[in-house]
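Researcher: Here's the sequence for the chain we discussed earlier.
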Amino acid sequence: MKKGKDNKRNEEVNPLKTVIMAGGKGTRIQSVISDLPKPMIKIGGTPVLEYEIRNLVRQGFTDIIITVSYLGHMIKEYFGDGSSFGANITYYEEKDPLGNAGALFYLRDQLDSDFLLLNADVVFDVDFHRFIKFHKEKEGLATLFVHPNSHPYDSGLILTDKDKRVRRWLAKEDKRPQYYKNLVNAGLHIINPVVLDICGTQNTCNAIKEERPQKIDLDRQILKPLVGTGQIFCYNSPEYVKDMGTPDRLRAVEKDFLQGRVKAKNLRNKQRAIFLDRDGTINIYKGFLRDIDDFELIQGVGSAIRTINEQGYLAIVVTNQPVVARGELSREELEEIHKKMETELGREGAYLDGIYFCPHHPHKGYPGEVAELKFDCACRKPKPGMLSCAAEDFNINLEESWMVGDGENDIKAGKAAGCKTALIGGGDYGQDVTVASVADFVGRFIKKGSG
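Model: Thanks. This is the structure I predict for it:
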């Protein structure tokens, strides 16, 4: 079973100093508004930057530095010293363009420990205490906030190892593997200032000393050099983080905000989930899969999961995979099958917030079996272990969630966890509803807002 997070995940951590990069001109969105700096564009009647600051202050992050440039005086006049917002705000004004990270080198003397680095054109509502606790547990130099999105095929991708270390960082234009996990950089970061010393080239340092401004790209020149060193990690969260840098994105974000989805996705709030079995529910049932070429999405499942995403539910797969314990499929081969699942769902604009699998099997005697996985575990359905683990990881209200699957064990696991249950196909196992497919379930119960 995918391991759950530390039981103490919700403990408070000491707030970090926060740097908000607000110096961009916002060229792509000037067709909507050109007489305001981008962070001052309003959503629901309030500037985007104000939402950021209030989200930080609510969680105790009150020491804030804002870098400004284009029409920066409007930001400074609006927020002042931050006292009216419960914050202590100072500013660094870029007299010449410094890129999206050049100002950090001029702020180096003010950064003596880990700090949050945020973009000012991002609408978010996240639990920063979870983010920081993850970063401290990993003891790296930088942590990226990442999430799945509805268009991974044309997004920059983050590829990690099993310990969440970033091993590859692919730009939009880079060639990517045939199948990949849907992980995209969201634009929120925790950085140790030592990174600036490591990644700042001698030319950069000399330019700063001689007051010769130099544009610095955060990803390319500061963070990407850490890839593969074991010092940069990614924190995967389903919380709401979206930039509003284009007219279309601005309209989409404002719609989400007005419908309450931005705030609701914060993991301090109880979440609702749709738990999905895999074989026979998401992909065509062909027995336990041992060959990646046998994986084939059921028609309509992509659009159904996309609707689950759009309606604010978490989409989480929970699947028994005893073929691992029986020695018929390695963990690496299973991971590739799941990457294919995520890749093909992504092509249909859908994504999964989590994949939990049970690799165990209680019965011995199979040729090539993996002895340490042959025991009666707590996660193999019909036991509710995978659902309970996900509930802890994502703060899920199980009573407001559904388990959807095509077998008796799915229904029993959902019932044991306290979920509502939907059976695909025939049979009577005490399920709440019977449906023809995931698409049928979504059409009848999710689009109508049930649950």
